[in-house]
Amino acid sequence: MPSETNIVDSSIAAFVARIYTHPLDTIRVRIQTTPKSTNTTITKLIPTFSLPNLYRGFPVAAFFSMPAVSTYLYCYDFSKNYFAERFNIPQDRLVNHMLSGTVAEIISGLFWTPMEVLKSKMQCNYVPDTFQEPKERVFRHPTNNFTGPPLVVGHIPRPTGNTLHLAKEIWRTEGLPGFFRGYWMSLGVFIPHTVIYFVIYEKCKSWATKRGIQGTRPKDDPKTPPDVYAPIAPFPFINYLIYSAVASSIAASVSNVLDVVKTRYQVSFKEEKGKSPQEIIRYMYHNEGGFKAFTRGMLARVVWAVPAASISMAIYETLKDQRRRKAFAAAAANQNRNENQNIDELI
């Protein structure tokens, strides 16, 4: 079963991945929340950003991503073991991966959603003016200081100040539910994403194991402690990176359809009428190119998701393997000591 050390491993993995990939996430949010008429692309956005602007929203993302990723990976490992032991569903079965991924996403979403609401609003200093005239959407905020790239036609500034100001404003206007804006929609996006990701990721590991890429595991020996590997790591670090990259690229592409709607919904505020998910979908379909509108930002999302998932998963798996090797070595040393003591007693 997973232990508290897995939480430490996943927290380290989450923080390192967020440091390297947050700028890509900022670009993704900007593209997804920009109407098609502005023709905004990655190559056009990058020159408009300063480094501090690319890391806008990083503190809140780092604060929430560590418990979110820890909960996500811990629940996935725990669920895999639970379904195998309680319901006799082997850990290498497709249904186990699907159920475990679903459980992990539902629980970790309690951390992911407030992070996405705060982070996305901080990353996006403006929101698409797609449903009302700018003069009807003027919004008074405690601070009028905001930074970012030049606003494009069809947008009005949404001055967010710092994270504390933003959190106070959400609490004042929407209360606690405001921090969980889009939770159910997030599940609609990320449960399929998680299921696709882990099914492909686990299949890649199974494929590699059958071809002898994986290291040795302890034999079926009653003296061998459970849930530990032999001193050889199951996979090299680069393999974890590759398997995760393949899985995340496919999962991110498929789930982008609803992720565009979710992101636009989460960056809006409650007082902005005409901002329900259904109305956002209708507007995008009729005004931004039909079904093609829901592929907006797909490349940016894949470019962000692949390194984010690959770095976090590779670090998590590698640290977990190292702890298992140490556990195996300690158990083997303890077993040798016991055998020596028995020999001494016989003598």
Structure write-up:
- With 347 residues, this protein is mainly α.
- The chain contains ten helices and two strands, in the order αααααββααααα.
- The chain has helices at 4-32, 42-45, 51-54, 58-86, 94-123, 163-174, 183-210, 237-267, 277-287, 298-346, and strands at 126-128, 155-157.
- Strands 1-2 form a two-stranded antiparallel ribbon.
- Helix 5 (94-123) packs across helix 7 (183-210).
- The chain is elongated and about 85 Å long.
- The two termini are 39 Å apart.
Which descriptors apply to this entry?
mainly alpha; two-stranded antiparallel ribbon
What average pLDDT do the residues reach? 76
| Percent helix | 55-70%
Shape: elongated
Largest sheet: 2 strands, antiparallel
Rg (C-alpha, Å): 23 Å
Low-pLDDT segments, ≥5 res: 126-160, 216-232
- How many strand elements? 2
H/E series:
HHHHHEEHHHHH
Structural class: mainly alpha
Q: What's the arrangement of strands in the largest beta sheet?
A: 1-2
What is the compact description of this entry?
The protein has helices at 4-32, 42-45, 51-54, 58-86, 94-123, 163-174, 183-210, 237-267, 277-287, 298-346; strands at 126-128, 155-157. The protein is an all-alpha fold.
Write the layout of secondary structure elements.
Blueprint: H1 4-32, H2 42-45, H3 51-54, H4 58-86, H5 94-123, E1 126-128, E2 155-157, H6 163-174, H7 183-210, H8 237-267, H9 277-287, H10 298-346
Antiparallel strand pairs: 1-2
